[in-house]
Design brief:
Structural class: alpha+beta
Largest sheet: 2 strands, antiparallel
Oligomer: single chain
Helix content: 40-55%
Number of strands: 8
Shape: globular
Strand order of the largest sheet: 1-2
Distance between the termini: 48 Å
Radius of gyration: 19 Å
Number of domains: 2
Strand content: 15-25%
Length: about 240
């Protein structure tokens, strides 16, 4: 966010409640998305009673993931496909980007994890010889790209990207651009908080909200389908 000539690094956590509603969990200023900034925010959420999320969705910010592993080690990682795809394409020449974009979509939108893994191999086979750095962004940690397959299929559309935050912050960025900056850090945070809480009332619940409670309770899903419940859920 712009603060006159400076910029504010704003750390935001949005969660999904057991009834399927999305909710702003926390917002604070940080220092360049550092591990300690994120860890401080997550520790504060934990002190306020928030349990470890079953799944965390975020971009490639290393500080965030290091903090999650420290504060909520049991939480599964899911990397945002929008950011991953952009990073991969930026590492490729423009002439091959259309083909790479189609190949990435084959991975992201595969019908199940096995087909997604096969699509990752096909992507590597096609591009790795000439552009290994681009391919490594997919092959170095594929489990973090495909974690959503272990969640209900109805929720996949919500879990592949960080769109709930990104779309909301488009409004925040627009407002600070129009006002030529928010002024102080506290004013910037207050403006972001107000704009996000206003947008929150228009956020729609996730698809199949009744399945959120099952996920939270430990129900197991395979390629999006409920296959087993833990003893606690069955009881």
């Amino acid at each position: 966010m712009r603060l006159g000539e400076d910029r504010l690094c704003c750390l935001v956590v949005v969660g999904v409640r057991a009834d399927g509603r999305k909710e702003l969990v926390a917002i604070t200023g940080g220092y360049r998305e550092s591990t300690e900034s994120w860890a401080s925010l997550l520790r504060d959420c934990k002190r306020r009673g928030m349990r470890a999320p079953v799944l965390a969705v975020g971009d490639g910010a290393l500080g965030f993931w290091a903090a999650v592993r420290d504060v909520f080690p049991e939480t599964t990682e899911q990397r945002c496909w929008f950011h991953v795809s952009a990073n991969v394409l930026n590492a490729l020449p423009k002439s091959v980007q259309p083909a790479a974009r189609r190949a990435l979509a084959e991975i992201r939108d595969a019908e199940d994890k096995a087909h997604a893994e096969a699509a990752i191999k096909a992507f590597a086979d096609e591009f790795e010889a000439k552009w290994p750095k681009a391919v490594a962004k997919i092959t170095d940690k594929p489990e973090a790209l495909l974690a959503f397959y272990d969640m209900p299929a109805e929720h996949w559309i919500h879990l592949k990207t960080t769109n709930p935050i990104e779309s909301t912050f488009a409004t925040v960025r627009l407002r600070t651009k129009v006002t030529k900056g928010a002024g102080s850090r506290s004013a910037g945070l207050a403006m972001a908080y107000k704009l996000i809480t206003t947008a929150e009332s228009r956020w729609r619940a996730v698809n199949a909200p009744h399945l959120v409670a099952l996920v939270r309770a430990g129900a197991l899903f395979h390629n999006g389908v409920l296959v087993e419940r833990s003893e606690e859920v069955a009881a």
